[in-house]
Structures are given as C-alpha cells and as structure tokens.
Amino acid sequence: MGRLPLSGVRIADFTWVGAGSYTTKMLADHGADVIKIESSAKVDGIRLSAPFKDGIKGVNRSGYFADRNTSKRSITIDLRTEEGRALARRIVVASDVVANNFTPGTMAKFGLGYDDVREINPRAVYLAMSMSGDSGPERDFLGYGLTIGALVGIHHLSGLPNREPAGTGTNYPDHIPNPCHSAFAVLAALRHARRTGRGQYLDIAQTEPTIAVLGAAFLEATVNGRDPQPLGNAHRRYAPHGVYRCAGEDRWIAIAVTDDRQWPALRSALGLAEESCPAEWATEAARHRDREALDGLLAAATAGRDAGDLFTRLQAAGVPAGVVQDAADVVERDPHLQARGHWVRLEHPEMGETLYNAPPFQLTGTPATLTRPAPMLGQHTREICHEVLGLDDAEIARLQDEGVLA
C-alpha cells in the first residue's frame, strides 16, 4: 500500500470522550501520526465506559474507547508537573495540529492555550471543540452530546408526539456533525498552513455544527411561523412512512412511499386487495390524510412476513424499505456490509481480537485502513519519548520514577 493521504502529518491529541476522539480517529485512520496525550491520574472518560470486553471493567477494555481511537499512539504525561508540561510543549512543537475538546481556558492552565502554542509553533493548526465556543455568555458551560442535543433542538424534535422529549438514543452530536465538521476544518487549515506557513485557531462550538443538521426545522419556524413538533416515524408529507411488525420476536420493517408510483408497487408486493385500498389513495395527499387507517392495513399485511424476505421483495419492486436490524444483525448477518469490508478485526494486546468500524468513506487512489488497534493507556510512551522527544532510556526511567510520565 502506498502512502496514506495524511502521512507526514502529526497531531498532538488532547481530546477525549466522543466528538474529539472521533475527529482525530478519522485523521489517524488516513495516515496522520496521532499522539494521544493522556494521564493515568485522570483517564479519558470513555476508557471507563461500557461495553467492556468479557464484561470486565478496565482502562484498556472499553469497546467504546477502542472504536473511537484506532490508529493512534498513547503517551501518559502528568501535566500537573512542570516537566510534564515541558514534554507536552515539545510534542506540540513537533506537531502540525494541536486538538482538544475541553471547556475554554483548560488548556491555558497547562500553558497550552492557543497563544502559548502560537508562540512556540506558529505553523500549528489549533483545534478547540468546546460545547459553546470561545465567546458568548455560555462560553464556560460544560456539556456532552446529551446536553448539546437538548440545547439545539434535537430533543424537541425527537420522540413520539405528545410525549416527553426522547433524544436520539445515542449522543448524535458526538458521532456525526461535530467530528465531521471538525475534521473538515482541520484539513482546510492544514492546506492554508502548507501554503503560508501559518497556523490558525479553529474555534468550534459543538452546538453550531449540530444546528446545521436541523435547517428544515428552523425554516419551518422562521418562514412559516410554525413550531415543528416530534413526529416519531411519521412524515409531514409521505404515507405510508413508518415501521411495521413482522414475523418473529421484535422484528420490524421500515417502509416509506415517497411518490405515487411507489404506491401500486407496494400494494402488489404486499398483495393488498383492491377493495381494501380506496382509489383515492393513489394520491399522496389522500394517503397522508388517511395515514392511521393505512398504517393499520400495512401492519396487518406485514405481521406474518419475514422481514428480510419482505425487504428484498420491496426493494426489487422499487419501494424504499429496510429491516430494523439489531447490533447482531448489522455485524453478523448484513451481507452488504460484509461485501464492502466494513468490519475490521484487529488484535488488541489485552482484549484480543476486537471488532472495529472501517473508515466511513473510501478513497480509490489512497485507500485508508486501520493501522493499529486502539492504544493501551501509555502503551507508546517509551516509543514517543525516543522518536519525538529524543530522550534516552536513562532519562525516560527517571521521568517515570518521578511520576512525570504517568
């Protein structure tokens, strides 16, 4: 395999938890040398997050941490010590990107704020991913995916009508809008630095990329003066549009008819009797008007069907449909993901063979791959001290004995 797209780029990675870690993971999987700077005194929160390999809790056994930190190296440094802060600054000097997702001011306490970094490495791209950004009245507020989703309106729009806000079931801001926008910003700033020799400060308020995915809702409120409400699986125009029970325990299929041509195809595939479907249901407006009756009809028609067989049949007829898969389905029984090589198995020093997501996009000219499993806490401390900091074994041993490399 040739050089990966980001080969030669080094990232001093102070991020933790979800959004920051996934941002730097995408860069690491595409060839960047991402040095995860950690501390055994206060480990990354997702190192302590379930699920754990074999149900045994440990800083090196979290599946969540593992999937968000592939292809990285880990060094442990106690930033509470002056020597530790000096070592971190030396890694920063040798890096192209410095990344963190702490609240504003946290990095400055360690002498690693943007002004500090710019003084010692003016070409460094400095990524800061706090919840609310580095300005404004909520600058110092702490937040996670759940609170970000609440603040920007996701929770208001999620769930069933006339029920309490439900959210998305996962910390959606941590996994999609924030890491993707941040990685894009880093690549743009790296291009600028390569052309000019000057880095810059990337101030990303994690609330704002998340707002960007809700454009239609804000337009509904500002243009039409209507406050969008949660719809569950329903749609404001299309019907049928929902999930319907199939044969077996907790087996369902999602069906969405998005134009009038798909309706007769759905009727035929399900064998719906003509007398059970009013002729006016040939139009989108009538189907949406009668969507409760239509949902009841479809639920009865799908109840005895195998979800997988029905999925194949509907797709062949040109009707958008998808089996509601659980985790085991996605990993073990999805032939499409298997054919695309989406799942990657790597040998982890403590967990053994573990499963990872492949990079979420494929480049034909410089295909990316996971170069190593997620690092053990401090696994590469000695290696980084030799290669990046130029320390000899005696100096490394002294720093470890004194708790600086810890």
TrEMBL record:
Lineage: superkingdom: Bacteria
Xref: InterPro entries: CoA-transferase_III_domain, CoA-Trfase_fam_III, CoA-Trfase_III_dom3_sf, CoA-Trfase_III_dom_1_sf
Secretion signal span: none
GO MF annotation list: CoA-transferase activity
Keywords from the named record: Transferase
Keyword check for Transferase: yes
Pfam families for the chain: CoA_transf_3
Entry protein name: Benzylsuccinate CoA-transferase BbsF subunit
Species the sequence originates in: Blastococcus colisei
